[in-house]
């Protein structure tokens, strides 16, 4: 193939699925040495935009990160033919919005758009709720040890249910009142024999699943324990002084479905976005498993020979992303029967990837948190990360990320809930 | 003209021998003195470390979090987690001969805690039925019950007062027996303790040479004793010497037995690592000299075909070490990685290493006050 020179032109046809940005579909000549910015200039010119909109360009479903000529050479494409280029509005770099200071390391962060709240779990054994203006509206005291994972449950106009898991081997369901900012423990779940590392709530908000260092996964109904079984009462001794009694009795839930199969600690659990009878889990035994909850059976097991630290599913594409101890993010099709069904590996982090979370608005975009102290944003159509968020000279590990609407939340060793604007 | 290189058998390339640890992933921050020892729990979730800063710390391995700190009144020489997964217990050697058994708070399940308590109670019961006078007369060192406050608050279960500083603690795989080495304690240099009986025995009436390390055989009732020059293998049941391994080094520092039981590695202060194949010979099958300073610790991985050595040169050498079931096939030894990062402080480098029980990872501690996970 002839090498393209600086002055050379190639014939391209621009297409877009974003109808508001549609331009002529006839082929035009553009300089072969143009990269993303040059092409973006052409499209903006054709749109007659005074204020340019940044665009990204895809050839054969892959984001263009080089010049056109470099792409053609690398992919062995003839410059004689018309090249079809799809363009999409670029994601803007995430910008810091705010940071909410905690007393100790943050293990888990979550946001809930509908109730306009953020939720964090901390090593100081507290669960905290924050409003959008950065006020800590509630500090939920009840765990006897570090909180490892938090999740939002059902929300009404008046109440929000919250679940938290802890190194103390229990799970607590809480109810927070939006009316008077009070909270109460609904019940405490007992049964795990090790630190409870993760919690996830299904789409219907009728059940939740927990993953533990004891190698089991448990699925619990959200009902009050009295509706499921004879109630036991447990005294939770509050470490911090309370104006009322120093001990309180709480209902204990022990009825659950147990999923046995992992060999070693389970680090992560999620429900399938569509089917609440399916959960996906990952653990130290290097496996990513799917389970039938009703049958309590392990349906599929995929192995990758690396420790799995987190699992997340896209609500747009149903693809599953996993974070690993070998610095890699793997993308899987959970429906594929194939035991080795890694569709893609995303590389760029320089240490363990502790947390992954998909954009709720794009099937291609996800974010990740790592022990390398960065949060990265990825488009799975591109090999490297789109953006890297890192505070200067920061070495603190990140334990948790959550892409909540147009915000990326992250938390870790720096004791701050960091919030970035990340609009797609 | 024959190229001399062509006569050397080709070793496999390291990249074909993966997995093995390649980079530092987590640093465990907190100690302010040399970290001479640490030990991982049998599941590999937690670890305990002992330092010259006179503290013992409990860590969550996957996050780097310090979960607990115990403060003592002496340097911590050795620490060892009980290998029985149903228990939650470790032994630590402090200062001039105190060995304490501790159930760490926060991490055990209620089942583990109660079983551990039962185990310990069994010992107290055994002691009282034997008649305490009689028992104390038979035990060469006293077993002391900690006061209630220390039991409750710190998890102390038993104190054993040795006559000299205990430099090594090592458990039998079942977790009932453990051996201690106090090199300066003459005929009490090596003691074997049994928790469920509250009993201490001195298995060797007379010991030749200064004992450096001891170890239980992973499957048989054999016991390895390393002095400066030799490793002697004893049958504990028959109370007889089985074999004497001639290391050829000047001063043995460290010892480990392959999980299969038929291969032994020995590290030395004169920079050498000897691999013995017990079926082959009483002399080393291979002597490796890769370190530029004294070797402080050698260790096998329990699951992967890996072993490692740690040195005062500040590095950790990772080797592929494959033992074959076929008796005619010699072990395959290939150096695969050098891990650097520890600072050398006053000529001391890496003081202890241990592989993760389930992952191809290694933990190291050093004179630079650091404790690191390499994955
Ligand atoms: Mg050790």
From TrEMBL, chain A:
Cellular location(s): Nucleus, Nucleolus; Nucleus, Nucleoplasm
Q: Which domain of life is it from?
A: Eukaryota
Any signal peptide, and if so, which residues? none
Which Pfam families does the entry mention?
A: NLE, WD40
Q: Which residues form the NLE domain?
A: 10-72
Which Gene Ontology cellular component annotation is one that this UniProt entry carries?
nucleoplasm
SUPFAM superfamilies for the chain: WD40 repeat-like
Q: Which GO terms describe its biological process?
A: maturation of 5.8S rRNA from tricistronic rRNA transcript (SSU-rRNA, 5.8S rRNA, LSU-rRNA); maturation of LSU-rRNA from tricistronic rRNA transcript (SSU-rRNA, 5.8S rRNA, LSU-rRNA)
Q: WD repeat boundaries? A: 99-133, 189-230, 259-301, 301-342, 346-388
Where does this chain mainly localize?
A: nucleus
Keywords for this protein: Nucleus, Repeat, Ribosome biogenesis, rRNA processing, WD repeat
Assembly, in brief, is: Component of the NOP7 complex, composed of ERB1, NOP7 and YTM1. Within the NOP7 complex ERB1 appears to interact directly with NOP7 and YTM1. The NOP7 complex also associates with the 66S pre-ribosome.
Q: What does this protein do?
A: Component of the NOP7 complex, which is required for maturation of the 25S and 5.8S ribosomal RNAs and formation of the 60S ribosome.
What is the name attached to this protein's record? Answer: Ribosome biogenesis protein YTM1
Question: Which organism does this record belong to?
Answer: Umbelopsis ramanniana AG
